Amino acid sequence: MTEAEFLTQYDPAAYQRPSLAVDLVLLGIRDGRPAALLQARRDHPFAGHWALPGGFVAIDEALDAAAARVLHDKARLTHAHLEQLYTFGAVGRDPRTRVVTVAWLALLDERAFAAALAANPALLPVAIEAAWAGEQGGPITAIAPGGAPLAPPINLAFDHADILALALLRLRGKLDYSDVGFALLPPLFTLRQLQDVHEAIGGAPLNKPAFRRRMLDKGWLSPTGEREEGTSFRPAELFRFQRP
Amino acid sequence: MTEAEFLTQYDPAAYQRPSLAVDLVLLGIRDGRPAALLQARRDHPFAGHWALPGGFVAIDEALDAAAARVLHDKARLTHAHLEQLYTFGAVGRDPRTRVVTVAWLALLDERAFAAALAANPALLPVAIEAAWAGEQGGPITAIAPGGAPLAPPINLAFDHADILALALLRLRGKLDYSDVGFALLPPLFTLRQLQDVHEAIGGAPLNKPAFRRRMLDKGWLSPTGEREEGTSFRPAELFRFQRP
DNA sequence: GCAATAGTGTCTATCAGACAATATAGC
DNA sequence: GCTATATTGTCTGATAGACACTATTGC
């Protein structure tokens, strides 16, 4: 039977279908480290574990619309860089029923990160540090904002540890050749702030002059002539991201 | 209501769910161009259009297992590089009912490409040439193996043109920093063959000495000491791909 | 020897890292 | 002037492209 025949004869009610969900990695920079916003689970399964904010996809709702809805419902945000990450569909990933989830990466600047936290007290900011595993992600360790590891170590529900790790790997991989880094910054920013973002995501210090040259050569930065305020030393120039 | 509460109270039968499918981009190199294997649709919707081989995901079937099953059923192949591409879920992408599809990239070497073609006469090899559109893909033009454009131009069913274009973009992007290129080659290959693959995917000629150096410096190639046969000129050495 | 391609050597332009020097703000 | 950081200049090593050269096979 060809696909065409199969589709024609397909009775939508005849087969059981997986449930379809979206899960969001709300990612920002906190204390110089990548940080995500998690929700505590109070019920089984995975009671007491931490989970990504998510929700089910409605029958008449596009995937990106579902992600945007979760972003609004759980974090009260209307604007964020939303990017599809990967679709997780192992059979046993949810012990109750079959749930396939489309994971999304939501990049928040400092202001949006704080706003989400203020709007929903159930969210916990957690600094993440992905072990450099394979492309599909690996184990992660979570650290409380203070800097000390939470004891006992944070346990993530479902396969959300894989999703978090993959989010960071993806971001790290795209940082150099794309403009995602600017999604983590306010509209006006200094070159030092941009470098801080790159260092936080990459997990390694960068050479300042080389970084400046590289960024300015990309042609994405337009100088504003304005300078930052409130420093006790020479203020840096503020730049704006602008596609070439 | 938190996600945990929602999940707990969620009645699997209470809500309509989208159908979940997988679609495969069976990609190989043909006449120095990237080529995909398509199926003709005989029935509405999109009768007379060309479509990617695909199928629905069973309730107890993982996503990669569904992709492997389609690979086997439609192309009679048991081994191929399978890589998840993107999940397409616009509401109207299938005019009959809501279908969300997880698109996969299947990379075939010349032998596997020919075997699939021989095993399933319904498959049509089509050379693809992606316009350099945005990241989510764009319009493509398809060319018959002879080299001349098919008249009238090939029409692809559903959003499969976007999927094809995205497949090529993804492959192009990963070619330089990953080892996907070797999935398009037989176990033993010459440096010229490797360069041909890179030029076909990249769509641009490459400098021979620089390409050799770059590839050998990666440490992925182990020389076999053997040489190709049947040439009327100096035969090239055969290499094998080996992770460092 | 001839034709055709494999494989190598070398020059040069580009780019990133290292490091030092200069500039400028608050105090 | 002092401190702390911004910003710039320069040297150097790594890398890619260009191009010419040598090597080796079948005929």
Notes on the structure:
2 copies of one chain form a homodimer. With 244 residues, chain A is an alpha+beta fold. Chain A has 6 helices and 11 strands. In chain A, the strands form 2 sheets. In chain A, strands 1, 2, 3, 4, 5, 6, 7 and 8 form an 8-stranded mixed β-sheet that branches. The first copy, chain A, has a 3-stranded antiparallel β-sheet with strand order 9-11-10. In chain A, a hairpin with a 2-residue loop joins strand 1 (19-30) and strand 2. The longest helix of chain A has 16 residues, at 160-175. Chain A is elongated and about 65 Å long. The model of chain A is unreliable at 132-137 (pLDDT under 50). At the A-B interface, helix 1, strand 4 and strand 5 of A face helix 1, strand 4, helix 2 and strand 5 of B. Chain A binds a DNA duplex (27 and 27 nucleotides) through residues 190-192, 206-214, 217, 227, 231-237.
Concise overview:
By secondary structure, chain A is α+β, with helices and mostly antiparallel strands. The first copy, chain A, has helices at residues 3-9, 63-75, 110-119, 160-175, 191-202, 208-218; strands at 19-30, 33-40, 50-51, 54-56, 81-88, 99-107, 123-130, 140-143, 188-189, 221-227, 237-241. Chain A binds a DNA duplex (27 and 27 nucleotides) through helix 6.
